[in-house]
Specification:
This protein has about 425 residues and is of the alpha+beta class. Helices cover about 30% and strands about 10% of the residues. It folds into 2 domains: about 240 residues, no CATH class; about 170 residues, no CATH class. It contains 10 helices and 9 strands.
């Protein structure tokens, strides 16, 4: 589970916890048609668990990493995706500190959290119907390991305003003290692809090169930073963080800058997908109920439903086409093979172009359209929403849309994205495939 705020064990927090639990019972995603907690998930973790139960695969627990390496292999999550966060901002915060950071690994659908000497492997996964679903795998060696679904504990931080009011991911940048405790009085930043790079990665280790550009990673603060403090540049352009903590017990000593940059976009994109899906499905569900109550024919469309569907489609298009992306102030490079492995995954058109090709000079992607368009979560969107998404994409990529929101897309960008999608994405408009 990407970074979340620390959970204080105080009497006041106990009141907040109870209040939060009561409030979540009233959340829309706990009611039909979503029924988040009551619905059986169907995602990569559930499929792996069924294979474990059937004896088709096994997970090995070793003395150093527990189940970590075996879980990554089973889910095809690359070790090169490792990022390290040392702020006390997640489930096992009592174990996390600069000398014992939390490692995060991810592929397009799954996020794995690991704390050295931790009690559990933490998992969050993009579920096509339920958005983000959370699990924990106990690190104790047993004959039949089991991923246990988590709801209330995770939804305290992963089911509110920080995640668009739906279960999702939270990636935060904070000002940590030498123990990893965030200095809350100094503020914090939610990190996605629109966040200025100078505000990213406080409380994280960062390995990579980025020229004269800045970030907040790799350093701690003894007091709230202010304008009178000299700028600490010791965390910039760091290729190796192994001197900052004992790397024994970690799969690599890296926290790759390119992996972090992809993570910022991907976690945000999953949240936008979930919000769009939930809003559309809820609007259509309520419309069906209203039609029955008012004796309208099935399928009668209300203006309010159109408004919700159009807004959801617009949000998806703007996210997927990287609107408001914070430009790179200098070229960036990581310290692992993540960039090469990520780009190699394809798919590619006949010209060898792919949405996974990285730019890393002035922006993240060479062709600025999200690879999340290939995921199960996108394909599971309601038909009415996907139809509007493609219509909106057609308007933008044809060049008819000239608003400032899409000014970052050149004519060549629009043509390339359209061509790649026509060749690689089933469901793209048939007209795009016409010479």
């Amino acid at each position: 589970m990407p970074t979340v705020f620390v959970r204080w064990m105080t009497p006041l927090f106990a009141v907040v916890l109870v209040t939060a639990s009561w409030a979540r019972a009233e959340d829309d995603f706990e009611r039909p048609p979503i029924s988040y907690s009551a619905t059986t998930p169907d995602n990569a973790i559930e499929r792996l668990q069924r294979r474990l139960d059937a004896g088709e695969v096994t997970l090995d627990c070793d003395d150093r990493y527990g189940y970590l390496r075996s879980v990554l292999d089973a889910l095809d999550v690359p070790v090169s995706s490792q990022t390290l966060v040392f702020s006390k901002t997640s489930l096992q915060q009592h174990r996390i500190r600069p000398s014992n950071p939390r490692a995060l690994y991810f592929n397009d659908d799954v996020y794995i959290g690991y704390v050295r000497s931790g009690d559990v492997v933490e998992v969050s996964v993009a579920d096509p119907k339920l958005g983000t679903v959370f699990y924990a795998l106990d690190q104790a060696a047993v004959e039949k390991p089991r991923f246990v679904r988590q709801t209330d504990d995770c939804l305290i931080c992963h089911g509110g305003s920080q995640t668009r009011g739906a279960p999702g991911h939270v990636v935060r940048s904070v000002y940590p003290d030498p123990t990893g405790q965030p200095l809350f009085s100094a503020g914090s930043y939610r990190v996605d692809h629109t966040t200025p790079h100078g505000q990213r990665w406080g409380g994280w280790y960062v390995t990579g090169r980025h020229g004269d550009a800045t970030h907040l990673g790799n350093i701690t603060y003894r007091s709230r930073p202010d304008g009178d403090m000299g700028e600490d540049r010791s965390g910039l352009n760091v290729a190796d963080v192994s001197e900052r903590f004992n790397e024994a017990g970690y799969l690599t000593p890296h926290s790759d800058l390119v992996a972090l940059t992809v993570l910022a976009h991907q976690a945000h994109g999953h949240n936008v997908l979930t919000k769009a899906s939930f809003d559309a499905r809820t609007a259509l569900h309520r419309e069906d109920a209203l039609n029955r109550e008012l004796n309208e024919p099935a399928g009668h469309r209300w203006p309010s439903t159109n408004t919700v569907l159009d807004a959801a489609a617009t949000a998806l298009v703007e996210c997927f086409l990287m609107c408001d992306e914070a430009p790179l102030e200098a070229p960036i490079a990581g310290t692992t093979d993540f960039a090469q492995e990520f780009a190699a995954a394809g798919p590619r058109d006949s010209q060898g172009r792919s949405l996974r090709q990285l730019d890393l000079q002035t922006r993240l992607f060479r062709h600025p359209c999200s690879f999340l368009i290939y995921t199960e979560s996108f394909d599971a969107l309601p038909d009415e929403l996907r139809e509007r998404f493609w219509k909106r994409m057609d308007v933008v990529l044809s060049g008819s849309e000239t608003s400032d929101a899409f000014a970052h897309l050149s004519a060549d960008d629009r043509s390339a994205i359209r061509g790649i999608l026509a060749a690689t994405k089933p469901g793209a408009p048939d007209a795009w495939r016409t010479p």
